[in-house]
Amino acid sequence: MNDFKRFLENGTARTELFVLIHGFKFRLLGKGISDVKDVLRAEHPNADIFAPELPFARKPLCLQKAESIVAGLVAAIDELVADRKRSGGKYISITFVGHSFGAVIARKIAIIAFGEQMGAGGDRPAPFEPEFAEFREPRTWATSIQRLILFAGMNRGWSVSSAMDWLTSVKWSISQLFGEFVLRGKPTIFAIRKGAPFLVQARLQWLALMDQEYGPRPDIIVVQLLGTVDDQVSPDDNVDYSVDLIGENERHSYFYLEVGKSNHSNVIEMSATGPLETALARTERRKKFLIALNESRETLANKSITREEMADNLPPKPDPTVTDLVFVVHGIRDKGFWTQKIARCIKKHATLDQKFESWTESYGYFAMLPFMFRTVRQRKVEWLMDRFAEARARYPRSTFHYVGHSNGTYLVAQALQDYPAARFKHVVLAGSVVRRDYDWLSLIQTNSQVPRVKKVLNYVATRDWVVAVFPKALQPWRRFNLGSAGHDGFIQGSELGPVHQINYIVGNHGVGHEEENWDDIAHFIVSGTAPEVTFPPFSKLQSRIWRLVGNCSVILLPVLVAAILLVGIDLFLWTGLLCPLASILVPSKSTLCLDLTPLQAASRTIVPFGYFWMVYMFTTRF
Hints:
This protein has helices at residues 34-43, 66-86, 101-113, 166-182, 197-209, 240-244, 279-294, 297-303, 338-349, 368-371, 374-394, 407-418, 441-444, 465-469, 471-474, 518-527, 544-574, 579-585, 598-621, and strands at residues 8-9, 16-21, 48-50, 93-99, 145-151, 221-227, 254-259, 324-329, 356-359, 399-405, 426-430, 455-461, 499-505. It is α/β, with parallel strands linked by helices. It has a 7-stranded mixed beta sheet, with helices on both faces. Strands 9-8-10-11-12-13 form a 6-stranded parallel beta sheet, with helices on both faces. Strand 6 (221-227), helix 6 (240-244) and strand 7 (254-259) form a beta-alpha-beta unit. Helix 5 (197-209) packs parallel to helix 11 (374-394) and helix 17 runs antiparallel to helix 19. It starts with 7 loop residues before the first strand and ends with a helix.
């Protein structure tokens, strides 16, 4: 943003500043946010208007990090305020107006402006990302922020949904795969994929900013304008209702206005001139924008849609009496019914001064083959953290804990790396697929008074062949980010903790969450006390067969994959579909070109396709 001043349009008195943040690819959506700018200039001729063109305006494949874009904007506003001060003036009022992706950025700028929130003893409930290290202290202009006006704000982000029409779903799915596998998840638009770190961090930081426990709540009016035919942002896709209800004695600050005859893109098209057939719609948008821009809280309350009118779609009101929440997350090839049973056991062990709630929602069946792809696993991490943010809004005074099995262990480990605001006091891992060298101590021994993790309990099984064969085989390659902690244990693990390790629990991959261990798991979650290791029921020795298989898995797994592929190729050639090629590559199979009897033809069709079907079922259901 070195040339940001070319995007500044000066007014006359210059006591007000309006910052306009456009949406993604706004150049491809007609005039973009220029209509909003024209209405602002007519309403506030004395104000300065800052409407920067962001890196993703002209480049659909923009790869710049959203955090860097926000940091550049905050620095630019710093300079604008300083420049205004040098000329003997001051911005008394600052208003942000954002559209779609720009609405999320606008909210993030306001968050950064008020600095990183601090609790008693230096606790940071929602730490800033590294890109905002120089902005941890409040900006001088933060208290001048009066309104956030958000057009079709993607508060919870986008996702490829079954609710989309088939063509849109195909386009988004292909684009998502290209962004994940070719561009390795770097496109800027991925910053607002549902559950992405940038988006979840913003939601958690906004919750901390509006929480009176960390200081006076900023007196900001937030107005969300959403089109009646917007097919990208759901009406109930706003965590803000929960945020607004945290401070019961505070004046309401969040308002939702519905804009008729408008979709996600054209909700910002409000010019006084244009096609006759859209005149009424443009007038409606302009009218609603002016209400959001100028009206008082009382008027906004009368004209906005209330929480009660949407009560059938929104989550329950925040419950500050809940002291503890435990996430119980299943693994791959698992329906996860056991999660609810462990959750009930944990609640039974709660002490009189604890009120436990649980979160046992399933992310769906997850097979072995897609599990191998880091980008696919990342979607599940984002799923977890989207629920984490929702849970934080619902239980604002709660301490979070975690019980995970298999892929569930990966989710919590990766979330703690990707999301600075992720925090779980007690963590139980069973059938872990996390790398052995995972650095738990850096999360436990933190400078903050409240560490991000306090204690870990890891069950190492005697016969966990799943971890021994698959994740362990991929452990030497960091790109896969998988490991054998459920088979070999963590390097930092010990019987005394704080990374408590059980060597060994008798059983296979699923033994850690079996009924015999529920009481031990519950006791650890509630009190942090690890189970006493006695022999039996635990074992001093691990299965020699599976330890040997695990040690050889780095060779066995590629051999297994190669064998499956070679058999498939051989059967495909045997069908005769590639007769000329088969005769060249495999002369002994030259008889493929001869006439076949009906029975032979049938067998050469059924057998190969039966094999391909079995491989398909194995890779997608196993």
